[in-house]
Fold these 3 entries.
Entry 1:
Amino acid sequence: MTTLNADQLLNAVRAFAQGPLAAQVEAIDRAGYYPKAELGELARLGAISAHLDAPHGGSDFGLAIRAMAEVSRVCGATGFMVWCHAVCGLYLQQSGNPALTGERLQRHVSGLGLGGTALSNPMKSYAQIETLLLKAQPVEGGYRVSGNLPWVSNLDHDHYCGAIAGVTDGEQPLGREVMFLLDCNDPGVELHECPSFAGMEGTGTYALRLKDYFVGAERLMAEPAKPFIARIRAAFVMLQCGMAVGVIQGAIDSMWAVEPQLGHVNQFLDERPDALQAELDELTARVMTLAETPFNGSNEFFLDVLDARAQGAELALRAAQSALLHQGARGYLMSSEVQRRVRESHFVAIVTPAIKHLRKEMARLSTQETPA
């Protein structure tokens, strides 16, 4: 890894994103090119580990979010994969398991190993939106896990991810969950291609099927899982704000790009780039303040994080729509970066936690915070 201070890291990430990464954006979005080499370079720069504690990072969630935003400003799909890898690193380090925090974490930080997160379904399960899809049967030395997950991103046959399964005795739930590291090339694991998406095809997204997958002590991240999730939940959601900030800034950039030619008529549109920039700057400052205490476990703090994440998703939708209107017909070309960014903004709004999920959790927590 390269050792850079914050400004140097951001400058290096920006240069890489606007150069080598930008050259691959269309292939990532539409042709299914998985940017393994590009993710490895971002890891080498330290862009995917800035939030981790020393010696693997600088415990700087704000820097991690800003680096993710620089990537997402150019390519929302790669920004999403940066989040997947970053949050997987968080699981590894916070697990406290020596088998996961030593060489395994070092390979992850350096980009020699790439990982994702299979927590979409568990997060929805905890919010009572879905049922938990993976089941873990206690056996000698660990668990046997079976079940199917329809969408898990930043995967390949030599990748890995953090996952959660409900512990059962036969078909009887035992009222607890176990979190573990899942290696995609192990026996009992199958990756299946997903149907084609509207965009972001190169995100390494697969359906994951497990049959009697063995989880021993060396794979365990948390047992039981709920206290672990309660500790990292704000950090998990907060890191996603980097995707939103980047996609919004990219949309604003596209608006300014046509101002010399179309400003005389674009002035009559409701959402103008200077006003959107002011909203984005305010949101970014808010997120940077939250990033100072990512492990604050209070419900009030988590409410603020959820609200910032929802604001980012909603502003991304507005900014991308406005960029399309500002660009006019040129923004309707399939090759237009604006057309891609509209689809990226839709993803920011629906990826777990989606806007509706965020609002449901905010309503629940607000009820708890405000007794009748």
Note: The radius of gyration is 20 Å.
Entry 2:
Amino acid sequence: MLEFLPLLLFATVCAALMLGYPVALTLAGTALLFAGLGHFLLQLGVPVPFEARYLEAMPNRLYGIMTNQTLLAVPLFVLMGVLLEKSRVAETLLDAMTLLFGALRGGLGIAVVLVGMLLAASTGIVGATVVTMGLLSLPTMLKRGYSPQLATGSICATGTLGQIIPPSIALVLLGDVLSNAYQQAQLAMGVWSPKTVSVGDLFVGALIPGLLLVVAYILYVTITAWLRPQAAPAADREALMAELGHAGSLWPLLFKGLIPPVLLIIAVLGSILGGLATPTEASAVGATGALLLALANRRVDLSMLRESVYATTQVTSMVFMILIGAALFSLVFRAFGGEALVTELFESLPGGVVGATLVVMLVIFLLGFILDFIEITFVVVPIVGPVLLMMDIDPIWLGIMIAVNLQTSFLTPPFGFALFYLRGVTPESVPTSAIYKGVIPFILLQLGMLLALALFPGLATWLPSIL
């Protein structure tokens, strides 16, 4: 039984997190308790598979975390998203897209999907996108006669695009962890000049799956609008312009609301795809561009800057605290022989690589109900990543599969995080059951994307291979 202590450590962490304890302190505290237990049992002469020497690597791990240039992209991308939110760029963008598509049957739904995609590319945070879209677009959709199921489902689904549309915070963190796991796997296989995988590779690999999901969402909204016109009726453009307070020509609003954020996204992603900048450097471009947009919209004052910097510091501190706790957890897990245990379990699974991948994807999907993507990235991926990559799985494909999997998990009733975010800003007249029913078609679309990625890995690997 003592050889299963690593699994007990993992189960204890999950149980403590479900009880609501802080993530970073739970990871570090539980790991230290088990390390103390292992040392105590060794002193009593109990043959525990515990090697305390692993803990000697903790100072180097801490130094590596704090000097990691890749992780510098996290505060800068967060600052970019916060500045865009505070400067009301999202509101102007939604008004422009609503007026452009609103006169079409299903047009408001299409506008929500497109704006959600652009917001996902701007903020990279699921919760921020879902809440923003819920506050800005849901009242208009309901007022214009949209089915509550279609309205809430499309908002939830497009909000989760923040997981997969670059520059996503999830892809930044996942890329850093997978890079370490890939090098670890190659060294374990005797490759002393290991290849690397970067955050930029994941950004490029996520482009085709992300855009295909956007197209699938738009097709679903369009087909629903034509089959059930009462669920997504067309709106009168003049009435919409009066309601939104934009009388006169549509083009000035389009120029003001659509062009600047699109140019900002092109500058960020284009600099990465063109090889002009690393993701960290591109994040600085994004933060600077967001500040310039806020200045152009005359939304910048000392109070707004203070709130933006404070919110960025909060998120960044949370990420790094969790990363430090996860580093300690990982060392203790390895000290108990957890790595060898996971490898042995995967090798004993029927189906080889396919069986192991299915099990990992199922576990990550279920953990997505109780853990945020940060915890899963820092706790689960370092454990299973090296083992899967030693089975000759492409690291970019694995990263995109994990991202889409988590995106689907965050959308699935009854525990999906996106559902809770939207419920918090939805009027009481819309029942929770309407939200649950509304997301089901989008969940099926995302499961279809997972299946397509499994059958055609080139959807994720082809573009990085040519760039």
Note: The chain has a mean pLDDT of 84.
Entry 3:
Amino acid sequence: MSHIQEIHITPIAIIDPPLLNAAGLHAPYALRTVVEIVTDDRISGISEIPGNSDIDAALEEAKALLIGRDPYNLNVIRQILTDHFGTESAAARGDAPWDQRKLVHIFSAVEVACLDIIGKITGRPVVDLLGGKMRDRVPFSAYLFYKYEGAGGPLEFGTDPDATGWAAARQAAALDPESIVGQARAMCKEFGFQSIKLKGGVFEPRIEVDSMLALHKAFGPNVPLRVDPNAIWEVETAIQYGRELKGILEYLEDPVRGQENMAKVRKELGIPLATNMCTTSFGDIPRSIELGSEDIILSDHHFWGGLRASMTLSGICDTFGRGLSMHSNSHLGISLAAMVHLGAALPDVPYALDTHYPWQSDEVIVGGRIQFEEGSVKVPTGPGLGVELDREALKKLHQNYIACGLKKRDDEIEMQKKVPDWKFKAVRW
């Protein structure tokens, strides 16, 4: 019987272009943390979560609780971590577009690494540990951003003049509808995406609605479109502009803040509403059902406490008539592999999943970057996650972390490089 003997926590920094969102601007590096759990019989399991020095410190604290534990015994591990760190309120998520809770990140990191170990012990892919594969390929959506010119990383707002194709488009400015359409064409050509999402909440709504109308005109009625203002619109704004978008959207994501406001907009518009901001934990679901605040929950195994919790969420969504898809953050191949295993196990995937992966150029897995075919990723067939840690790449990306000096994400500070007096507002228009 295997027992956990070592836990290695490695913060890394990956190149990220200057992408705009409701909370400000992406820094030149996005932070991730790679967790490796090694058993006493030298079986290694890996996971990847959003980087944050406070969560890294909590993971270090958790080591003493987990050494000697059986990686199969995830129920006990969850209880031990909950007893130590306590439960978290929905308010701990914060107002920013990304989730800032501690415990869900810790458990997701530990659980995915343990499932990777279990898969290697049994010789089965993680999808089989989640109940089995429902599909061989998992579809993803193009994820567009307004952005300043710049490649990110050491170039920051500078560009590589030798870049071509998507590598060139990824560093080009996109600040209006025309350039958003160009970005979409380049991304869809490179990755074959069949649906398109725009990260909104950046400019006043007229510009963003015009961008969606331009995408609809450029790609036609058979390419599903979605837009995410990150809850920064007033209810009246969402209703006004939602009526314009009603005929062209697959769904409207988080136009307003809070379940009550989402329910008001949903009732007025009759457009499917999706969320990863107003219903973000199991404790939020009863009120969501009572109010009718959304049609689709965008799960994220990093934020819901792991892959098995996400399967539980799938059952709840099915019971109460909710659709389920997936949220994304800047990530590498370990997270993408985990998302693909989960996406393959879900009973139904009516909406292509989100991914930031095209915006990243680094990688931390052996063999380099995962390939997309017609916008989909083939489910790994190897044991566990089916991906292995590239230790030289890990060292390099850890050095990036040390050199860049970032300890947690703060898009407001980065935005002030361009607009000195800019401040994040929970509701702006």
Note: The two ends are 58 Å apart (CA to CA).
